[in-house]
């Protein structure tokens, strides 16, 4: 982690109208690491992710990815940013009317000058990487939920991004499929060195994949912890942190509601 960070977040504030979701959030993501963003319901995890990928603009502060400020208006820089990130959304976000192969081919057709043959080779390679070789002609409705997540991951990787973002990757999966996805995430990180930022509240996944975590808290409207999840679980002085990691109701328990995840 002696190399320059691939993502720099400085004093980031998210606000919708008069409602401040979080404020003064600062952290770094280092090349090749898996950073997990966690916290209770409504703490702003998904809102933070959307700021990191440029879907939301900060009320204050900044996000720098690969040395480029996410607020840039430069068309070439924006194109470079988009090609440098891949996103696996909760649902997989596959186009239902397109086959898996067509879903994967779309970003390559949009952002590269590759020939159809070259695109087909890359699509087949990415499907094989997520254990979906031979499923290119299937529609999303013809495969299981776990396979849809893996297909979504293949599409997120098709442009060889330097950073992969995951929004609740285990959501809706049975325990076996969730564990298989965790193994795949770790395998891709170890094999390709891809930096990963994962939003999740699933403790098993957190302890399985995270190199480091940051924890948001709804009442604090910001970060309350950063570090190794096992160290935080066992030694954090903040009861909100230890309660979360040890599944204890109490000070660390978030109020229930329909707020942002």
Written overview of the protein:
- The longest helix has 18 residues, at 175-192.
- β1 and β2 (19-29) form a beta hairpin.
- The protein has a domain at 7-84 and 161-245: Rossmann fold (3-Layer(aba) Sandwich).
- It has nine helices and ten strands.
- With 261 residues, the protein is of the alpha/beta class.
Which class of secondary structure composition applies to the elements?
alpha/beta
- Report the total helices: 9
| CA distance, first residue to last residue | 29 Å
In CATH's first tier, which class of the domain at 7-84 and 161-245 applies?
A: Alpha Beta
Low-confidence stretches: 251-259
CATH architecture tag of the domain at 7-84 and 161-245 = 3-Layer(aba) Sandwich
Sum up the overall morphology in one term. globular
Keywords:
alpha/beta; 9 helices; 261 residues; six-stranded mixed β-sheet; Rossmann fold
Task: Summarize the SSE layout with pairings.
Blueprint (H helix, E strand, L loop, with lengths): L6 E10 L2 E11 L4 E5 L6 H8 L7 E6 L2 E2 L5 H9 L1 E4 L11 H12 L4 H14 L15 H13 L5 E5 L7 H18 L2 E5 L3 H7 L2 E6 L4 E6 L1 H7 L3 H7 L16
Parallel strand pairs: 3-8, 3-9, 6-7, 7-8
Antiparallel strand pairs: 1-2, 1-4, 4-5, 9-10
Helix pairs in contact: 3-4, 3-5, 4-5, 6-7, 8-9
Describe the structure concisely.
With 261 residues, the protein is of the alpha/beta class. The protein is built from 9 helices and 10 strands.
